[in-house]
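Hi support team,

I'm filing this because I wasn't sure whether my run with shikimate-3-phosphate finished correctly. The job status page said complete, but I'd like someone to confirm that the output block is well-formed before I use it downstream. Pasting the exact inputs I used:
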Amino acid sequence: MTGSVALVGMPGSGKSTVGRQLARLLGWQLLDSDAEIERELGHSIRSHFEQYGEESFRALEEAMIARLAARPGVVLATGGGAVLREANRVALRAHGNTVVYLRAGVEDLVRRLRHDTQRPLLQDVDPAIRLRQLFTQRDPLYRAVADHVVDTGRSSVSAIAHLLAMQLELGDLGGNAAASAIHKPGSSDDPADSA
Ligand code: S3P
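And here is everything the job wrote out:
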């Protein structure tokens, strides 16, 4: 593998936590696009949304992803909405990168995020309703951009990170029968087929 690994998925799917462990296992740097945006802004994404709105954030996010996706040998954790812009989907797949979709079911996401106070899109509505809407809109986009889909439901963060690291090092992500949590999009054992 020549490029980096980009993790995409819904808020609460574990991109940052899996990314941190995966980066440690590979000896690579973890870059988190939301954290980098907040560092440059000097304030939170939530307050940026409140002051300037979502489109302003999306423009910052696009510029940041273009920069970070071009870095070799990093694990890049993206924001949940990064796949909304085609430019981001193209950038994430460029540079020989491997894109992994960490897929979690809506029930799990609701359980993890029902008390969240940081994610602007979950503040003014019932998180269960909003998460279902976002999932319906985005699941096809995550699948479209991803080289590999990881069903996170039954596995711990550590197990997912170890599996990904092993597969990346083998250069055979998804092709190993032992990797039961990893599915190539469209394969017959794709968890979405039975969801
Ligand atoms: C967003 C998800 C957030 C962050 C921003 C917008 C989204 O990242 O980028 O609040 O549109 O779903 P996480 O996926 O890390 O929560």
